[in-house]
Specification:
It is a single chain. It is built from 25 helices and 23 strands. The protein is α/β, with parallel strands linked by helices. Helix 19 packs antiparallel against helix 20. The longest helix has 50 residues.
Length: 682
């Protein structure tokens, strides 16, 4: 062993001091000899004696020093081994094959003393030793043993590392690999973290969204009983989860509940929505409510703020649902029922007055719809344009790509001497003229990414949103006026109501009335779906303003190519579980998405079909048009489309899917429907 061992580091230099000292003495002897020969000779004799003594001492003392070093190392190693052996953290050493070579007392008490020389996978079956071998210098693994959770650290150790960092002894052929294993018990820490998380309070708001309507539909003597039953249902439900709830208004409640109960509430999909809806003591209208919850907030104030945002979102989506906001993640529950049309126009009158004040306070008005604009988007923009002109304000409509569906109506405005040449602008042209004194009115869309020019939203602080689509987690931030009514059949219906209240001097021209009537007609599929009393009242107003139904129908007749494409899609449609799936050919069509929507409507006319899904490919995007029958037999296609990133209404919805084929999109929709039916979400 001694032949393979050499002295290294500072000790090596320390043992060389006699040589250095002899060199110094020799130099001194030479110097003295130069000065005095006799004294130099005497000094030389002393130098020879010192040299012989140094050689003898070094020759005989080196083995003794080496032996002492080895003894010290062994004793020091025993101290280290004793410390590791008594260490409370389980510690072991594995060889390159994964066998446990040595373990301290804590590890032996954990896995048994007989575990030494066993493979680590035999001791802990969950350990994948191949991954540990592929690791870098350190890796971490979670091991569960006897209901305890250990964060295990594996450290690679090479024998050459000892040789490199050892200042006393070196080895000639270090080759073996060792792996050190430390096991840190985190069971209690994780339990404390989980308990702390579960004990956090979550704020929530409950709002009876049709309280007045439900009360009005009930006999006067039973109204107090209905209110008491609603309060009892809500209170009993929340108390079953140890929640604290208080009634702040006749139709509003505030509650706080421990975070640990939220998983159960969410798993039940907020069953209180159904319980309250089932209350019937003679009320003609079912009671519906909205619930907003703010989770995972850093403070109770932020949690309540998120709950308020969630309740606003639930109301904007038509009510009768729960919305849970956890930071940027938003979850929806309920919303399966058809939105009930409000019988009163008070809200429309209030919004019309607010819009009037906004327009009067600005220098100009810019109106913008959604990308790939349809007739409803165009018609509602024309209505707002007329309102701005009636208030003597310059107005412009942003439209980039003109689709075949919009082209017939748009042609009646172009080159018309009654309208300014800059009535229609592209988004880049609108951006050049906009400033902080511009009112931007967004119609038929409430998602910023879906608008004709998302960049225009940052050009002014005065943004107005008029839309009939249900809100999603993506919405236009901080509009000065937001009028979103999911129960409305179309944006044209909403704008037609606003026009009747915004000022006494509004007078639609016949071609403007045609444009709005066309939007109303297209979005209701010729008044066959999503129509209510106010829909026909809006149609009557437009008819009085000069809309010609025959002229509108003539403008929207289909070409032979469109008719053939529609017939081809219907012919190859497939039925599965009362649902129809079809692919609409896009080749040779200027507006294939419009044709896809028409195919989806056509399929609903077939007996036995409750919902239809049509897939249209344009470049790298699959456009999904979803339709369903109104009533108890139809499914809520809006919830299905939301699950895959789209949105819309309960009976009319859509989505855009990137980088997939029509077949992949169809399979995705089918799987989504199956999963949601299992969950009870639709």
């Amino acid at each position: 062993m001694n032949n393979d061992m050499e002295i290294k580091g500072r000790l090596k230099w320390y043992l060389r001091w006699p040589i250095i000292l002899n060199i110094i003495v020799a130099a001194m002897a030479i110097g003295v000899f130069v000065l005095d020969h006799q004294a130099g000779i005497l000094m030389g004799v002393f130098f020879l004696v010192h040299l012989i003594f140094s050689i003898v001492v070094s020759f005989y003392s080196k083995p003794a020093i080496t032996e002492e070093l080895i003894n010290f190392g062994l004793e020091y190693g025993q101290v280290q081994k004793k410390l590791l052996h008594d260490l409370e953290v389980p510690y072991g050493v594995l060889d390159a094959s994964g066998k446990l070579m040595w373990g301290n007392e804590a590890l032996s008490s954990l896995v048994g003393s007989l575990a030494v020389r066993k493979n680590i996978q035999a001791i802990f079956p969950a350990v994948d030793f191949e991954k540990i071998q592929e690791m870098k210098e350190k890796s971490y693994l979670e091991i569960v043993h006897e209901d305890r959770i250990y964060r295990t650290e594996f450290c690679r150790m090479h024998v050459e590392d000892f040789a490199e960092h050892n200042n006393l002894v070196g080895f000639d052929h270090p080759e073996n690999l060792l792996i050190a294993m430390f096991m840190f018990d985190e069971t209690d820490i994780r339990r404390y973290i989980r308990e702390n998380q579960e004990q956090k309070l979550v704020a929530g708001i409950i709002f009876i969204d049709n309280f007045e309507e439900a009360m009005s539909s009930t006999e006067e003597v039973r109204r107090s009983l209905l209110a008491a039953l609603i309060e009892r249902k809500i209170t009993k439900y929340m108390q079953s989860y140890d929640a604290i709830i208080t009634k702040v208004e006749k139709d509003r409640y505030i509650f706080v509940v421990n975070h640990k109960h939220m998983s159960a509430i969410q798993s039940s999909r907020f069953s209180i929505l159904d319980e309250v809806r089932e209350i019937n003591i003679g009320n003609e209208m079912s009671v519906t409510m909205c619930i907003g919850v703010g989770m995972n907030a850093i403070s109770y104030g932020q949690s309540f703020g998120w709950a308020q945002n969630a309740i606003d979102l639930a109301l904007g989506r038509g009510g009768d649902q729960a919305v849970v906001k956890a930071g940027d993640k938003i979850s929806y529950y309920g919303g399966k029922t058809k939105q009930v049309e409000k019988g009163t126009r008070v809200k429309a009158r209030v919004k019309a007055h607010a819009l009037k004040q906004i327009i009067l306070g600005k220098d100009q008005v810019v109106i913008m719809g959604h990308k790939v604009g349809d007739v409803d988007s165009f018609g509602s923009a024309i209505g707002v344009y007329r309102a701005a002109k009636a208030l003597n304000k310059p107005a412009h409509i942003v439209i980039n790509d003109i689709t075949t569906s919009v082209q017939p109506i748009l042609n009646t405005f172009k080159d018309n001497p009654e309208y300014e040449p800059d009535m229609f602008l592209k988004s880049s042209e609108a951006a050049a003229i906009m400033n902080m004194e511009t009112a931007l009115v967004v119609v038929d869309v409430n998602r910023p990414s879906y608008t004709e020019g998302p960049e225009l939203l940052n050009r002014t602080k005065t943004v107005v949103v008029l839309d009939h689509h249900r809100q999603s987690s993506e919405s236009i931030e901080s509009p000065v006026l937001s009028y979103i009514e999911p129960y409305a059949s179309s944006a044209c219906e909403m704008v037609a109501e606003i026009l009747q209240y915004i000022t006494d001097g509004v007078k639609l021209r016949p071609i403007e009335a045609d444009a709005m009537f066309a939007g109303l007609m297209i979005d209701t599929n010729n008044f066959a779906s999503k129509t209510g009393v106010r829909t026909f009242e809006a149609a009557a107003f437009l008819k009085k303003s000069g809309a010609d139904i025959t002229r509108v129908h003539l403008a929207f007749r289909d070409s032979m190519e469109i008719y053939r494409a529609r017939a081809e899609a219907v012919r190859h449609a497939e039925m599965e579980n009362d649902m129809a799936y079809a692919v609409c050919p896009a080749e040779g069509l200027e507006s294939p998405t419009i044709v896809g929507a028409q195919v989806a409507n056509e399929l609903l006319n077939i007996t036995g079909i409750k919902a239809s899904f049509v897939f249209t490919r344009i470049k790298d995007t699959i456009y999904v048009s979803a339709r369903s029958m109104e009533g108890v037999d139809g499914i809520n296609v809006q919830l299905v489309m939301e699950r895959i990133g789209g949105g819309g209404h309960s009976t009319i919805a859509g989505a855009q899917l990137l980088d997939m084929t029509e077949g992949d999109a169809e399979e995705l929709v089918k799987k989504t429907i199956t999963d949601m039916q299992k969950e009870g979400a639709i």
